[in-house]
Amino acid sequence: MQDLFNKIISYHDLINGDLTPNKLRPTAIANFLKSEQLTCKDMIVGHYRGHKVVSQIKVSSANPIAHKFYTNKNSIQHQVYFNSKYQGILESINNTAFKSMTILEKIVYETPISMPTVTDWNEIENDRLRYCYFNQLLENLKTEHIYEIRQITLIDDEETCKKKISKLHRLLNSFLIELTDRYKIKQADLTLQLKHEYTNRDCAILIYISIVEILDHTYKSFKRYLDLSLNIPFSSKLINNTNFITKTRLIERKLNALTVDEELKDILNAELKNILKFQNTKRISYNDYQYYTVVFKSLKRFFLKRKIKELDQEKIVTYLISINFKNKSFFDYLIESIISASNDFEELEERNNFLQVKTKEFEQLKVLTSGDQENCSLINKLLNWLALEIKHIESDIISKQNQLNEFNTDSIKLISTLNINEIALLFRLLNELDIFEPEKRVRVAAWIKQSITNKDNRIYSQSSLRNNMYNPSTASIDRIKKFAIELKRTIDRLDE
After folding, report:
1. For FRET with 75, which of 22, 56, 183, 462 sits at 20 to 30 Å CA-CA?
2. Which spans of this chain does the record mark as coiled coil (predicted)?
């Protein structure tokens, strides 16, 4: 492990130490490239417009983008490669010295003409030589580091692997930050181009690219060991994927064509905008990238493989729960929907039954989804919320039942001097005068039975009370009239 850290520290030497370009001797660089058994080939790349040479740049076989120009890697003899469909021009310039070439056929656009020749590393200009040295050295370091990281995963246990590789990740990330700050490296700088002269900054860009390639490889093979709280480098292939943007736009259009709740649409559109945002800004942590990658693939699979008529709100909500859509606004939306639906039930028992049914649905959905607890965390949160809500409602039901039991005891009944016929008529009139909230007579009769008795502690029959409300006797009517007259006199005395 320490040996690997020593090799990793070599990036520090490349940036700050004895291996920096302005401290390297050309002879030492040439000897290094020879020791790597690299055949030295050099090429002049020219661009023509018509008969005129627009530009000419040299590129050696150790340049990081040499493969674009050395179309035949096995050939080291004097040849001309004309990357164009104009075969007649190719014949006219074959075996002709570059500076004495004449083009008989007019070419409207700039056209590259390349000519490789065998030479010696000592004859390559110093700045190009240093650039090639960095390219080869970084290729070697990248191969070594990837090998060493793989060895860690083969030898060490999971915890040790996580500890070592996450430490390496943080170290490599610190080099990227240093390079970015010192050389003001931007996204556009990382697309390599042929140049007339290569500076220290160009070499720094090669270091940056090499480190990112190591991190990309490590993420693809051993992502669970990385420090996922760190940001992904902006040149990483992970966040330079045009498929993300294209497919996300298609999902947006499909979603907005659906007839579903606008709040649900807003939640999904906001999430899609987050996917587009990190693709455009190139700034996101590995953790968030993993989450949004899963969300993107899941939404793409769900929305783009179904016709609009096959999609409705219930299917969308169920699918989002099943993929563990960990969005705070979505969780709040689900809870508000459940509360709103449960409030449609007046009785606590009915509300409790509704919540019990929702619990069953989520439990069944959990069975259908992955057995991995992490993939069920949203369902688990919903089940926990439902359990608390059900517990609270059941407590209210028990409290209500206790109150009802207390209310039903004979000790709290009021003793009336009226008989059953007179009581029934009196409460019918009170109900019809809206003294109480409008109630069915059967409920009024039930309340009288539970609340009123006579001096003999007689229990009134509910059916008798109800019948007397519908068919009051003449004697009952006269008795209640007298009470009404006496009631008016009593009120009049209050005004005196």
Report:
1. 56
2. 338-365
